[in-house]
Amino acid sequence: METFKRRSDRLINNNSTREATAKKENNEKKNFPCVKYVKYGGKIVYLTDMSEIAEAADSLIQWVERQQHVPIPLSFDMEWPFSFQTGPGKTSVVQVCLELNCCYVFQLSNLRKLPAALVALLKHPRVRMHGVNIKNDVQKLARDFPEMKLDDLKHRCIDLGTWCNEINETGCRWSLDRLCNYLINQTVDKNKKVRMSNWHVVPLNKDQLMYAAIDVYIGLVIYRELENRARIKKERL
């Protein structure tokens, strides 16, 4: 198992909307020249084999069940190849982060089905998956891998953008990068070459691994920041 030290905006079906969003975010970055890029120096656990992914997911389930606090936030994201001719491909990568010092990158390219332990982790009653546009992600994952039945999972997921609007009484449409700018004054490096790369090809390179890990790492950072703001807001009521 290799580890590296350090993603992807959701690929939108409407190509013009996607490009407009990227252009808008680039313009926003020019207006904030002092904003720093997110850096990740923790461990990246990269796995491609069915049995190894299952073993890692089972280990994470055991960790979840040892924790006293609930719910336990699980930062979640996915990557897939995209073609302007054929559209989005099958989900190739699932990445998760439960602690800030370790991110798991599971490449699914060689798998015909999801390991039962990974499904159990994502659906664990003590876990609350979160991300940006996460409900669309889990819907895609369920389409690509039918054993990932949605049940009530879609309704238990926390969309960080929606939550941010509720806490801060805003009405914005958020990307991960915009949330990062707004909440912690940093920016996510959305390198187009990496974002649009071949996520289905094994193995992933170091840039892809870092890109994937940073997305779930900063997702957990944002979750904790929103959780803290929600607590402060409640105390002031």
TrEMBL record:
Signal peptide: none annotated. One of its GO terms (biological process) is nucleobase-containing compound metabolic process. The keyword Ribosomal protein does not apply. It comes from the Eukaryota. GO terms for cellular component: nucleus. Pfam families: DNA_pol_A_exo1. It is found in: Nucleus. Its main location: nucleus. Has exonuclease activity on both single-stranded and duplex templates bearing overhangs, but not blunt ended duplex DNA, and cleaves in a 3'-5' direction. Essential for the formation of DNA replication focal centers. Has an important role in maintaining genome stability. This is 3'-5' exonuclease. The lineage of its organism: Eukaryota, Metazoa, Ecdysozoa, Arthropoda, Hexapoda.
